[in-house]
Amino acid sequence: MYNDEIKDEQIEVFVPGRLCLFGEHSDWAGTNKSFNANIVPGMAIVTGTEQGIYATAKKSDRFKIYSSLEQYQGDRLDCEMNPAKLRETARDGGFFSYVAGVASYMCEWYHVSGVEIQITKMDLPMKSGLSSSAAICVLVAKVFSKLYQLHLNTLGIMNIAYWGEQRTPSRCGRLDQACAFGSTPVIMTFDGNELDAHRITVREPLYYVFADLMAGKDTIKILSDLNRAYPFPHNEMEERLHEALGKENQAIIKRALKYISEGNPKALGALMTEAQELFDSKIAPMCPEELTAPVLHKTLADENIKELVFGGKGVGSQGDGTIQFLAKDKECQDKLIKYLTEVLGMTSYPLTIKPKAAVRKAVIPVAGFGTRLYPETRGVKKEFCPVVDRDGLVKPGILVLLEELDSIGIEEICIILNREEQSYYEDFFFKPISDTHFNKLPKKMQAYEKKIQDISRKIKFAFQDEQRGFGHAVYQANSFANNEPVLLLLGDTIYRSFTDAPCTKQLIDAYEVYGQTTVALQKILLEEVGNYGVFSGEWENKEETVIRINNIAEKPSMQYAKDYLTISSRSDPESCYGAFGCYVITKDVFDRLKTAIDNNIVNAKGEVELTEALEFVCKNSGIMGFIPEGRSFDLGNPESYRKTVAEF
């Protein structure tokens, strides 16, 4: 039925809860656009929490899920992988009905056998507006995807979790499954049956606190009363509800995105208060018994809390369920949790949303001899071979690279070279030309000479004393990186962007969204795969510019690439994607390179490979692929250099 060799492989999975920061109720409201074209699409900003569900899992002939945790009181589910029986279990209700719904969906639509899941830890509170039911559904979908190598992307996992939960009495909304994105904020749009979701780049730390109001609410009644106004409003009150969940909600979401991208938590907190006022004036009247929420409003008005926060509002379906605040800083966050817990008796949790580490540094290995460009490289290093830039100046290829790095705000640049080549670089970058020569230059070139001196202030050197491969060369920048993400470039590759943003800036922007090692990729012909590192995976976004990578091969054969490395896109059912020539690499890549060096993990030539490190990180923590709008030009061999000179 499945490969016995991997039957006992055990994986670990974590899925957080989800907290709706803005836009509650707009998910189901927006789906009604399928019946009423005048409905404005719903929008919400949702983030994963620091709390969640932890589990181990392995393949099985049956579907089993159990836990020794107190929350589950010894409950377990053990069912054969039969769609009808699993759907019957899902309809019965209860916490494990959710997982049965997902398992029934997997059984019907995918060629899978069963799984055995043990929930080992759960610090996510249930029935607190944090979607513990959605988290367990996402967890089961992830387990099936990983164990059976289904290679589902995030939206795929979200959809399976959603339709699995729809088979239970719960009838959750579409935003609940945002926990599939992990502990990161996302913007979601609900346009009829269409769902779109994108990660949000955070610029400044956001110190949230959410708490159980310990008062209770009737979510079923809230949803039932609000749903009376859909798909068509019948009176002025219902029209006001449509406005609040439609165009007015969209306006709030757009402002929230602006404040998050600008790093303006004070304005974001004030917007929370404004969003609560909108909810109270236009949505709460539809269900006053539940949404008047005296405990929520008393807590929001507490002067002891106001001095610690920028703003606050309700959570999820609102009512006296859960409350959220945006604290002014870490100290205020700690004080608020203490006050809510010890004085008000509310179970409280921190949620700190941190920006991804900024890419401030770049690394360029140039230690190779340049054999393919011999005999030119007897006297000129290959990265100094000249090209004519768009400004009409003749520049060494590496200067084109350095100029791009300078233009995007890179603060420090580490060039990795052989020690005997240090004087070559120092003469070019650190030794000004004579006054006589400088005065002979036209003003345009004099200005550029000063620019070279400015760039040189960012340059540092690291040395590869042994020729042990590209991965070994990259590792020589480990101390320079100092645990920060770095932009890694090839010394013999330059780029031309098709947009106003340089290719390297596009790559850094993609990294800041996903926060994982990110490889720039380009579409290549099948017959060219033997010249590239080739990457495959699943599209992570609808624009087909980001790939969640699951397979990497260094210079594979055409047949292997055709069988295992092609990706289906809208424009081509069998596309191949090779390395573009730049990467953002994180600490885990340097850690793996160290392991490879220390344990002599090398290729057939005895070289430490960057590709091997990327493969390891891909399997253990994941890497992303990004396709820039641009083109890379190779200076490393005669044919490509000829094309670069002609076309760059």
Describe the structure.
α4 (132-147) crosses α5, α7 runs parallel beside α8 (247-262) and α8 runs antiparallel to α9 (265-282). The two termini are 54 Å apart. This protein has 648 residues and is of the alpha+beta class. It folds into 3 domains: 4-198, Ribosomal Protein S5, domain 2, CATH 3.30.230.10; 206-353, GHMP kinase, C-terminal domain (Alpha-Beta Plaits); 361-647, Spore Coat Polysaccharide Biosynthesis Protein SpsA, Chain A. It has 24 helices and 24 strands. Mean pLDDT is 91; it is low at 1-7.
Helices and strands, with pairings:
Blueprint (H helix, E strand, L loop, with lengths): L10 E12 L3 H6 L10 E19 L1 E5 L9 E5 L2 H9 L3 H15 L4 E9 L9 H16 L6 H13 L18 E7 L2 E6 L6 E7 L6 H9 L8 H10 L1 H16 L2 H18 L5 H4 L2 H7 L2 H4 L2 E6 L7 E6 L2 H14 L4 E6 L7 E5 L20 E3 L5 E3 H11 L4 E6 L4 H8 L5 H6 L2 H14 L2 E5 L6 H6 L2 H4 L4 E4 L3 E5 L5 H12 L3 E7 L8 E7 L6 E9 L3 H7 L11 E10 L1 H12 L11 H11 L3 E3 L3 E5 L3 H10 L1
Parallel strand pairs: 3-5, 12-15, 12-17, 15-16, 19-23
Antiparallel strand pairs: 1-2, 2-5, 2-6, 3-4, 6-7, 8-10, 8-11, 9-10, 13-14, 17-22, 18-24, 19-22, 20-21, 20-22, 21-23
CATH topology of the largest domain: Spore Coat Polysaccharide Biosynthesis Protein SpsA, Chain A
The CATH top-level class label of the largest domain: Alpha Beta
**Average pLDDT score:** 91
Structural class estimated from helices and strands: alpha+beta
What's the gyration radius in Å?
28 Å
Query: What is the oligomeric state here?
Result: single chain
CATH architecture of the largest domain: Alpha-Beta Complex
Strand content: 15-25%
Domain tally: 3
The fourth-level CATH homologous superfamily of the largest domain is Spore Coat Polysaccharide Biosynthesis Protein SpsA, Chain A
Shape summary: globular
- The parts where pLDDT drops under 50 for at least 5 residues are 1-7
Described by strand count, sense and barrel closure, the largest sheet is: 7 strands, mixed
Q: Count of helical segments? A: 24
